[in-house]
Design brief:
It is built from 8 helices and 7 strands; from the N terminus they run ααααααααβββββββ. With 218 residues, it is an alpha+beta fold. β1 and β2 form a beta hairpin. The two termini are 23 Å apart.
């Protein structure tokens, strides 16, 4: 998916501040940040490992939100990219956001280079999705996985009542090596041949998917 360069980064940082998304009007930056941390802990921790604090990330997000509102234009699917691009550029110019900007470039140099060419990499797509969910008030269920081959964490937001979450660990040829239902704690991978993990959410009554599955490759 091709987007404008800095817009990519906007998404990055914005995501840094969003996660259990409810509505852009009624939901504050802290709530968004908590949701983001739930869905993408590895991404956020990589930025924080460079000395960035939760407050600095939330400050940047608030700056972007303010810059969007200052444009005094109703946010739509059609103008989403252009409004965010403008807000992102303005927020990045602010002195208080310089450290966050520099940390992103240091933590994700390759993806940042791709972004400069107007391309959002797979590494950055979660950010794009999260930002859009937050600003449009989208509350559909989302499931993700994070961690390493040794230890996995299952995440979900806005899960419906009566849903069953299933995590499978597979070999390269698709053989199921481990299965976990509604995991409440970290999952320890017990097989050296594990190639990837996948998480699903089903309605336990109809067995129909609740949302898109998510795959984490090792």
């Amino acid at each position: 998916m091709i987007k404008k360069v800095l817009f990519v980064l906007l998404i990055l940082i914005t995501i840094l501040s969003f996660v259990p998304a409810i509505s852009a009007i009624d939901y504050d930056e802290e709530g968004a940040y908590n949701e983001c941390y739930t869905l993408y802990p590895d991404f956020i921790n990589k930025i924080k490992d460079l000395g960035i604090t939760d407050n600095q990330l939330m400050t940047f997000v608030k700056s972007v939100e303010d810059k969007v509102l200052e444009q005094n234009v109703e946010l739509t699917e059609e103008n989403f990219d252009s409004l965010m691009f403008t807000a992102f550029k303005e927020a990045f110019k602010m002195r208080k956001n310089i450290k966050v900007r520099d940390a992103l470039a240091k933590a994700y140099p390759e993806s940042t280079t791709e972004a400069i060419d107007g391309v959002i990499t797979e590494e950055f797509m979660p950010i794009y999705i999260t930002v859009k969910r937050f600003l449009f008030g989208i509350t559909t269920p989302v499931i993700t996985l994070s961690g390493t081959k040794e230890v996995l964490l299952a995440h979900h937001v806005h899960m419906i009542d009566g849903a069953t979450v299933f995590v499978g660990i597979y070999s390269e040829d698709g053989t199921l090596l481990q299965a976990h239902i509604n995991p409440a704690e970290a999952i320890e991978c017990k097989s050296e041949s594990a190639s990837y993990a996948r998480i699903f959410a089903f309605n336990k009554n109809s067995l129909s998917p609740v949302c898109d599955s998510y795959t984490l490759k090792f």
